[in-house]
């Protein structure tokens, strides 16, 4: 199973999505017998790569946020002591 194949949500995989959708249109019956399987495998790999990049970016963003939060907590503790 794959996520909805909207091009704006998966810009990295747009080309493969278009090929996969074209394959399904060109082979309405053969698609059930593996005609588009190679494209499906490429699509799955692309989605995994895309997700890994998003996960890394989110992790980096969360690290920055945690650092800012720690700095803010230290600042508030220093104000309360003074």
From TrEMBL:
Pfam families in the record: Cmc1
Keywords recorded for this protein, A-Z: Disulfide bond, Mitochondrion
This protein's record includes keyword Nucleotide-binding: no
PROSITE patterns per UniProt: CHCH
Cellular localisation: Mitochondrion
Domain of life: Eukaryota
Any one cellular-component term (Gene Ontology): mitochondrion
Transmembrane spans: none
Keyword Disulfide bond: yes
InterPro entries: Cyt_c_biogenesis_Cmc1-like
Family per similarity comment: Belongs to the CMC family.
Stated name of the protein: COX assembly mitochondrial protein
Source species: Digitaria exilis
